[in-house]
Amino acid sequence: MTDFDTSLFLSRRRFLALSGGAGAAALLAACGGTSSPVTAQAPAGGNGGSAYSGPNVSLAFWNGFTGGDGTYIKKIVDDFNKATPNVKVTMNVYQWADFFQKVPAAVASGNGPDVGAMHVDDIPTNAARNIIVPIDDVAQALKLSEADFSPIVWQGGVYKDKRYGIPLDSHSLGLYYNKAVLQKAGLDPEKPPQTGDDYLAALEQIKGKAGVQGHWMTPFPFTGTFQFESLLWQFGGELFDDGITKATFDSDAGVQALTWLRSLVTKGYSPANVGQDADYIALKNGRNAFNWNGIWQINDLAGISGLQWGAAPIPKVGTQNAVWANSHQFVVMRQTRPDQNKQAAARYFINYVSQQSLEWAKSGKIPARKSVLESAQFKALAPEAQFAKQVDYVHFPPQAPGIADALALVDTAVNQAILGKKQPADALSAAAAQATKVVQDNAKKYGG
Amino acid sequence: MAAVSSGVERPVESEPEVLSAGHRIARHGKATPYLFLAPFLVLFAVFIVAPAVYGIWISLHDYDFLLPNKPWVGLANYQDLFSPGGRDAGDFWQAMKATGIFTVLSVPLLMVVPLAVALLLNRSFPGRTFFRAVFFTPYVLGVAVVGLLWRYLLDPNIGLVNSYLDQLGIHRNLPWTTDLPWAWVSLVGMTVWWTLGFNAIIYLAGLQDIPPDLYEAAEVDGAGRWQQFLHVTLPGLRPVLLFVLTVTILNSANMFGQSFLVTKGAPGNETRTAIMLIAETGMRSFRMGTAAAMSYVLAVVLLLVSLLNFRLFRIRGESS
Amino acid sequence: MRSRSSLLGRSGFWIAVALLTVVFVAPLLWMLSTSLKTNPDATRQPPSWIPDPFTTSGYQPLTNLTSQTPVVRWFLNSILAASGNAALIVVTAALAAYALARLDFPGKRFFFGLIVGTLFIPAFLFLVPNYLIIAKFGWLDSLWALILPSAGGAFGVFFLRQVFLSLPRELEEAALLDGANQFQIFTRVVVPLARPALATLIVLSFLTNWNDFLWPVYVLFSPSNFTLPAGLSILQGAYTTNYPVIMAGAVVASVPVIVLFIAAQRHVVESVARSGLKG
Description:
The structure holds three protein chains of three kinds. Chain A is of the alpha+beta class. The relative contact order of chain A is 0.19. Helix content of chain A is 43%, strand content 13%. Chain B is mostly helical. Helices cover 67% and strands 0% of the residues of chain B. Chain B is built from 13 helices and no strands. Chain B has helices at 32-59, 76-82, 89-121, 128-141, 143-153, 160-167, 182-208, 212-220, 225-236, 238-253, 257-263, 274-283, 288-319. In chain B, helix 3 runs antiparallel to helix 10 and helix 5 runs parallel beside helix 11 (257-263). By secondary structure, chain C is mainly α. Chain C has helices at residues 7-35, 39-42, 60-63, 71-102, 108-117, 127-137, 144-147, 155-165, 170-177, 182-193, 195-211, 214-219, 228-238, 243-263, 265-277. In chain C, helix 9 (170-177) runs antiparallel to helix 10 (182-193) and helix 13 packs antiparallel against helix 14. Chains in contact: A-B, A-C, B-C. The A-C interface holds A 5-7, 10-13, 15-24, 26-27, 66, 92-95, 97-98, 101-103, 105-106, 108-112, 276-277, 281, 285 and C 38-39, 43, 57, 60-61, 64-68, 70, 135, 138, 140-141, 218, 221-225, 233-234, 236-242, 245.
């Protein structure tokens, strides 16, 4: 995942009292007494999970929903457990960085979960390593097709012509702003700046009139890297070339993007050393005006009484609209001792959750399915709908086995430049040179 | 997994039968000693001997334990670390540098500060046992608790340390965890806080082993406090000092938890230590061949440092 | 050293002791205070030492045994792992050390040389291969992974051999004349005589295992199997900015240790002290 054990989600006052013992369940699963030894990892059941009528099984479901979305996924799991007496799902939530350190090793050693959630850029690596298994049958049973999704989300679940992921959502970066701070600076709290020039002008005014540094620029992947990548695409750049054989994020576009972000610090619109998540906390405390953050924060902000905040698409700083996005996808883990019933139940569980997209959207996600996206109920979720405006120009991280090791280098370059350790151009070119070596190694290792 | 035989092959040469005084009877059967040794030898063979050999084997492959093919690459993993522009060379030597910086900064402090504390405690006063326990407490808490605690105390925006500095008007928002040199100050400082008690107790025992009449003799010769310290205390502590130095260097070179919990390697990868990089490479990217090669290079460097240490102490010992 | 009882010297001494004590105690009190705060209160500037409002909600996600962050369970796992490891070390090392100190057999020098030769090999060298070995045995994500590997270390054998060599032989000779076999001599004569040294080894092994961080973080996967180091690092990840919860975790992890330490303070301190003098 990344070099830094950063948290994708902020915690909140409402804790997740998670139904536990999942670890024990995973262990039981690993040493499952009822398992009928199957030589190959056969696709289970044959109905792709449209129903499950087998004996009682328990499933371990691991994910990285540590934020407000955790509350919703837990609700979905609880509902599922109520509705399905013969399948008991226990959930474990890890920070994503920890998740990707533990899951591959756990699955390989037979102590892993049965079901998980991953991002699209994690799917090829884990498919190539045989951590997750193909689930084309689930997509067929759900009667899912590309027409139901935005193509990128749909294609994101595929590796080497096999489907490994069932899309759950897409989630992008968005602009959050503190209305009180904008008002104090004499800006219209209903019209956040939407171009680069307006944005800088607003920051200048906020600094002068409200005495607030208006865009705390975090040097950490969450969400510093996402801000850099968004701007890289806005300036017409790309992270890698088409075949992912060479890193290209040190292009002029990349340098422009990173220079612009660094200038927020040098111009005094941001403190010089923003700690992890301090940018977001400062927004909540009125010490920051703008924060480009994941749409998963919506619920956290909504839960704070008296906070006046707004959401909008991120401003167009470069030559075109673009914004970082990713998608959570359901995956089924390989089992060292395949258990037909578990596999069938896992598919049924995914099938069930996939149909709960709207509930999931309330956790601050854009539902993956167009039908839900276009429903009146979704449009009623104001901030989410604001962010959904960006749907036509979202960009996803590249997909290739082992890409995480290359993307980690982008994190380092952003960190060095924002903290003023290196000039943006130098940081990017050093990282890109190394990233090129990494993707070439990967191509050799995984056979392209 | 290399097949682990029960122990190691018996060497052909047997020791000459030395009968020490009082051995007049057959003391035990031939197998008895091996039965005594066996439990330990099994553990030793499986977890020390086998991994040492196995690790070399791993380092000669492109070893991803999650992939079916693990191609033989010969010395390529090592070459990569020593060729400028190699994929891992930059990261590795930066991590080695970080470990080096940490060691150079922390070892002198961990030698001197605990000695000062030990001298302070080396007198009888009410509550001595209590204070000794207080200074040792962080060590028993473990690095996880200490790391969590200091991460919070040193938080640039909401940490206690900065808010006091701010109130005293000294400085605003020092970047204790995100910028240099502050990150090193933090990591070294918390390490001293964490392990000071351990070294202090060892010193204290050493101090109590120095015969009091040496001090009395020195006092008769008209030596002051400082001269007594130089000519009686330090020479008396020499073996203890060497022990503490060796252990402290080894521990500092092993530094992982503090960076992992407090700075996460930031800024950039400046505070990512060698162990942290080895763990990330081997256990997160699963590039175990490279990680094993890194381990061996680091071990050799450490070995050289240890040898140098012993030499210096011996030379100093002979000259004094 | 005899203190010069000048008033200045004495007050300087007490000032130094008091300052040091504050440096060591204040952070721990801050940890306790924060664990009883609400999150906004914990991030308030300037910080206050008294929680307002006073709340134990930080402890809620931790004390529930079925939650995902069962700190109490982690604590028990840590105790189990460290005790198991210390017990295994002391038993196997004592047996082996006895053979090396008291028995004659072909290959003795070779074995002793081999064992001592590994004394200074740093543990990280075995990180990757031992991970794979433990994986082969199917012990990843279990306490066996924490109990077994470090028991192969040479320190215990080396340390106890020195101790056994320094014991007087007369009692052993007498027992031998009484017809005791070697195992009886070992259990009835040598072990009782070496009890303080064995206690020292137990304490040192326990502390080393307790303080180990790298290994548990990478070999344990499931929350129910975590020990404190592995669990607390996950806790910091999951509650990044929720300092009351993180500090509550640290408090739950600390209080029993401090109580244990106070109870066994003399032993622990003596053990550590002794380890240095053997160096």
